[in-house]
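S.,

Sequence below, as promised.
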Amino acid sequence: MIQKDYIQRMIEQVTKVLALLMGMDVPEDKIKIINEAYAHWLKANPDFLRMLTPENIVEVLVRGKGYSPEQMEFLAQIMDAEGDAELQRGYPTVAANLWRKSLVLFEYVDEEMQLFSFERMEKVAGIEGKLSKIST
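The prediction came back faster than expected:
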């Protein structure tokens, strides 16, 4: 029951953060909210999360920090939004790196949870589309 309550709170927070970000036009304001979400909900330094690579992010956060699949999914969604903000700021390389990490995190969540999600599948497809636009 405690785990279910935790997951429900996490889903509610993700929804609130993403809704707040969608209503913002200034990318610097989005980055500020994202930094607060990293610090408050994931207890992580935003700079630390940004320096992780797509190749080591799962290892460091799951095995090193003990993040749950729910936390990893929250992080994947926030990194996707951060990628959007960085692209809006004019940093496509930074955005692409964040989206690659987000894809790795969503992949991990899919494998760990073994629960098919249309929402997650749509997110992944959207990120892949954004990456293909930057790559061309």
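DSSP finds seven helices and no strands in the chain.

Coffee later?
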